[in-house]
Amino acid sequence: MKTTTLNSIKGILFIGISIYLAFTFNDALTNFVTKIPFIGWVKGSIILRIVISFSFARGLQLLFKSFSIRIKSIFVVSIGALLGFTICFIAQPIYNTDYGTFGTTELSIQLDDLKNETTTEFSLNKKPALVVFFSTNCGSCKEMSIKIGELQSMGNAPQIITLFPGTEADALAFMNENGGQNFDYYMIDNDEFFMKTADYSFPSIFLVNGKGETIQHWNGALMNYSAFDLIESYK
Predict the structure, then answer these.
(1) Which residues of the chain have pLDDT under 70?
(2) Whole-number pLDDT of residue 74
(3) Tag placement on the chain: N or C end, fewer CB within 10 Å?
(4) First and final CA of the chain: distance in angstroms?
């Protein structure tokens, strides 16, 4: 096989891989963090974007080489990396809430109150946990349930304890449909208590240690890559 043909094939493969990774970014990142757990979500997401960018750049460089287009290599790599990063950004935008601490330590939960509202059933068993207040008709809750379920299935989370208002049938349907089949759950009939403890926002997520002390609290969809790394440290 001629060198030019081989370079063309390699170039197309590199570009194809970079585009594939860009459009399957979340799955690729999950696999990456699973296989190399010490990397973490923040570093993993950055490394993956770099890999995508320079894979595209290498592919473009090989294609230029195969067609004998004489352009300085550093220029081709720079343009290719920029194009690769742009494709990755289009497929998986970087939001201003993806990184950094957007949780708070000012809001906490009281275990005694939860025990009372769940007829003394609630228990951490002296283990760290994610305690999550879900509303079954909340879109953000469904998205977050799937994310938390993925963390749990990867072994990158402490025990997951979920709390629901309404009926148990609705709660079970919600968990079965949104990756929460292995969540522990409790029902709370006191709507006023449920709303107030959740800070009137759903999902309302508390990371607590084995003593029940709140480490961090997140509202809505603000549980980001930085939060995943913090949660993983309590698994």
Answers:
(1) 1, 68-69, 71
(2) 84
(3) N
(4) 52
pLDDT reported for residue 103: 81
How many Cβ atoms are within 10 Å of 50's Cβ, its own excluded?
14
Strand residues in 111-194 grouped as ranges (E):
129-133, 159-164, 184-187
Domains recognised in the chain with CATH numbers? 3-91 (no CATH), 111-232 (3.40.30.10)
- Looking at residue 1, its pLDDT comes to 59
φ/ψ of 159, rounded to 5, equals -60, 145
- According to DSSP, the β-strands at 159-164 and 184-187 are parallel
Q: Which helix (H) or strand (E) holds 152?
A: helix 139-153
Residue 186's pLDDT is what? 93
> Which pTM does this prediction carry?
0.81
Q: What is the Cα–Cα distance from 29 to 11, expressed in whole angstroms?
A: 23
CA angle 147, 134, 27 (to 5 degrees): 10
Give the strands of the sheet with 184-187, arranged side by side: 184-187, 159-164, 129-133, 204-208, 214-219
